[in-house]
């Protein structure tokens, strides 16, 4: 059940991050799920490094969305250089 909930949460976080971030992102469902999951991981590590979270603690919804927006921003910078 853990994997299914991770996929559902990743999808919701990815959709919200894409809706908040300006511009057009042409991602399918799979990349949106991956975006949400990676955003959650980034938020967890960044929050732990800044002292917002304890080691091993989850980032939460807002932190995950912010992490996904950071990932989208970096992705946009990489794609523009090509």
Concise account of the structure shown:
With 82 residues, the protein is mainly α. It is built from three helices and no strands.
Q: Poorly predicted ranges (pLDDT <50, ≥5 residues)?
A: none
Approximate shape: globular
**Strand element count:** 0
Strand/helix succession: HHH
Structural class of the helices, strands and pairings?
A: mainly alpha
Q: How far is the first residue's CA from the last residue's CA?
A: 40 Å
How much of the sequence lies in strands comes to under 5%
Averaged pLDDT: 86
Report the radius of gyration as a whole number of Å: 13 Å
* Largest beta-sheet details: none
Helix content percent band: over 70%
Write a concise keyword list for the protein shown above.
mainly alpha, 76% helix, 82 residues, 3 helices
Explain what you see.
It is a single chain. By secondary structure, this protein is mainly α. It has one domain. It has three helices and no strands. The protein is globular. The protein starts with a helix and ends with a helix.
List the helices and strands and how they pair.
Blueprint: H1 2-20, H2 29-50, H3 61-81
């Amino acid at each position: 059940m853990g994997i299914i909930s991770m996929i559902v949460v990743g999808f919701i976080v990815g959709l919200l991050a894409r809706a908040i971030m300006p511009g057009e992102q042409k991602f399918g469902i799979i990349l949106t799920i991956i975006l949400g999951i990676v955003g959650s991981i980034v938020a967890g590590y960044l929050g732990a490094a800044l002292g917002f979270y304890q080691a091993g603690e989850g980032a939460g919804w807002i932190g995950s969305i912010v992490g996904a927006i950071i990932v989208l921003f970096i992705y946009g910078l990489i794609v523009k250089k090509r």
